[in-house]
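Document type: protein sequence-to-structure record

Subject area: structural biology

Format: plain text, a pair of labelled lines:
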Amino acid sequence: MFNFYEPTVLEEWVENFYIEHDIRTPFDLTIDNISATLGIGVTFAPGIHDEAIFDEDYTHVFINSLHSPQRQWEIFCHELCHSLRHIGNQLMMPNTFRELQETQANSFQLYAALPFFMIREMNLPATQNEIIDHLSKEFGVTHQLANRRWDQILRRVTRGRSHYEFVTTLANQYKRADPANWSHETKKLFHLAIQRKLRKGEGVVSR
């Protein structure tokens, strides 16, 4: 069913980034592993504000330790986008630019926490609820995030299939309309119709 899935540019970037750093299985997707691989500092403390502080040389992520482990991982993925993809201090940015960064970080979170290139290698259960539960357990995320990601994947597959069917239909229509593909009888009838129009004095435009 994944043949028609169409990843975004950001999603492809995340996949290439993971593969480049040998992050290839759900087992590799942990805060400890990725922070160690990338040299990112992480502080957990009760009640602190979830955020990332970074510059060109170093990144430090702060996560509220009162969150569940699954939620902590999701927050880490969100903040990871800011350090890898963004520049500047959000407190000094216009609201529209800050909102744009947050939107991108939310998308990044889905791609980083539940990478499609890992999902497509899985033997998924048959029902929707079972799939959500399976993704939640395998990737260590909340059911809410797993459900969002699976819904996104299904919509991408549907859109990709619709696009394929549309292009195929257009190609078939063009093929039928191309005189080079007409039968001898069809060509004969076409020329006969033109001759009749010429005899009646009607203008004929052929392109």
